[in-house]
Amino acid sequence: MITICVRYLMGRAVATHPSSYKLAEWPPHPDRLYMALVAAWGETHRSPAAQAALHWLEEQPAPELRAVSEIQHRDVVTVFVPTNDAVTPRKVDDKTSNDVIDDGLSVLPEKRGKQPRFFPAVRPLHLVEGIDPTLVAFVWPTDPPPTERSALADLCSRVTYLGHSSSPVECWLTDIVPDQAKSLPLWKPGSTRLTASRLRIPNPGRFDELERLFVQGLRPKPVMWGSYDLDSNRPEQTDSSHHTVFSSDLIVLRQTGGRRFGLESTGQLTRALRDTLMAICPEQPAPEWLSGHSRPGQPTDRPHLSFLPLANVGHNHGDGRIMGFALALPTDLQSPLLHSIFFDDGEPRTLKLVLGKIGEMQLELAESSRPQTLVPELWTQPSKRWATVTPMAFDRHPKGRGEDAYDEIEKMVLQACKHVGLPENIIRSVHIMPVSAHQGSPANRGFPCLQRKSGGNIHHSHVAITFTDEVHGPLMLGAGRYRGYGLFRPLTGAFA
Description:
The chain has helices spanning 30-43, 48-58, 98-105, 146-158, 179-182, 206-215, 266-280, 288-291, 337-342, 377-380, 403-419; strands spanning 2-8, 13-14, 64-66, 71-73, 79-82, 114-117, 121-124, 135-140, 169-174, 186-189, 197-201, 224-231, 242-243, 251-258, 293-295, 298-299, 306-311, 322-328, 343-344, 347-348, 351-354, 360-365, 383-388, 392-393, 427-433, 460-472, 475-476, 487-490. It is an alpha+beta fold.
C-alpha cells in the first residue's frame, strides 16, 4: 500500500471542474494529482526512475480517497484579464511612424483585449472535532518497486500546488494511511449507483499523452471517469428515528443553462421535468414508478417518483431561486432504466425543459462538487423540526372556521404523515403560517394553486412541524408531494 497525502496550506482548493468553468472541483480528482506529478517531473530533473514510477502509477486501479464531503463554495466572480499577444510588433526602422509605435504599444497589458476568467474555489469545512478538513489522502492497495517508490516520494515533495497556483499544497508519500486521514470520509471507487460521484482517473498511456500534448502546446484532454461512493463515517442511526417511504439517496440535477426560475414556478417546472423523463424513457408506456399511473388514466396508489425543487433558501442571502432538482424514488426501488434515462453513451444526458414562451431550463446530473443547496444531506438530515420550502397542498378545503379550521388542518397534516409511512402520534405540534420559516421562500400567495380534476383550486399553506422523534428526509407531504409542493427542510440553528 502507498498513500499520497495532500494538505491545502491556504485552507481552500482553487480548481475548475471539467464540466463547467464556474464550478470548483472537490474532492480533487486522481487525474489532477497525476498531472501535478507529471508537471513536477517535467519541471525538474526528468529522471528515468521518476518516469518509470509515473508509468507504474498510471497502470494501477483507481485509488480510494479520504476527504471531507462538507464544503463551502466561494461565489464565482467574472474577472476580465488581458489576453496573450495576438501579433508580433513590426520591426522598427529608421522612419518610425505612429502606426509602428501603436503596434508596439499594443503588446502592453492595458492595450490588449480582455477575456472573462473565473476562479472557482471551495473551502473544506471543519464540522467534526479532530478532523483536518484540508487533508486529502489518495490510497493505492499495491506497493511499487523500491526504486519507483523512492522516485515517487521525491516527485511528491516537488508538487507545490494542486489546481490553480493560488492553492499551494504540501504533498508527501507514506506507506500507511495516517491516523488523521483515517477519520475522514472514505470515497470508494467502482460504484454502480446512479448517484455516485464521477472523478477523473489516469489510465495506461496517460504519461505519454500528457507529454505529447505539452510538446504540441495543447491543454490536457479529459480521460477515463470512475464512479465513487461516499462513506461518510456517520454513526449508526438510532432506533428512535423514522424514515418515510422515499429513499434518502436522492438523484440530484443541477441547472446548467437556460432561464433562472423562482420557487413560484415549481408546478410548471416539475410538470415539464416529468414529461421530459417520460419522453426519453426507453420503456413505453413509462413504468408506474415514473408515470404515477398503474394504467392509462388511472393514478397509482403506490409511492412513485417525486420531484423536489432545490432552491436557494434558509439563509440571509436566500432568494428562492431554483438551482436544481432532486428526484426521490420509493425506498429500495432498483430499475435498470435509470441509467439509460440519465446517461447517453456513458456521458450524463442534458435534460431540456421547454416551458413555451416563458423560457427553458437545462439540467444535468450533479457532480460531487456542487453548491450547498444541492447537497442531499441538507434536505435529508434527521431532525425533529421541519418546515415547508414550498407550501403544503391539503387534500380538501377546511370546512370550519377559526379554531375548528386549524384543528381540521392539523388532522390533515397527521394523515399526510401516515401516507408517507410515518407512525401515528409522532407529531408534537403543527404551525400553519402565511410565510415560510426558511428565509427566501415566497409566501403562500406567491404560489399558484394546484388544480383538482374538477377544476377547483387546492388550498395550500406553509407548515412547520415538530415531531416527537427525529425524522429522516426527504419529507414531502400533501396532495402535491409528487409535484414539488409540500417540500419540507429541516430547521437548524436558532429555529431548531
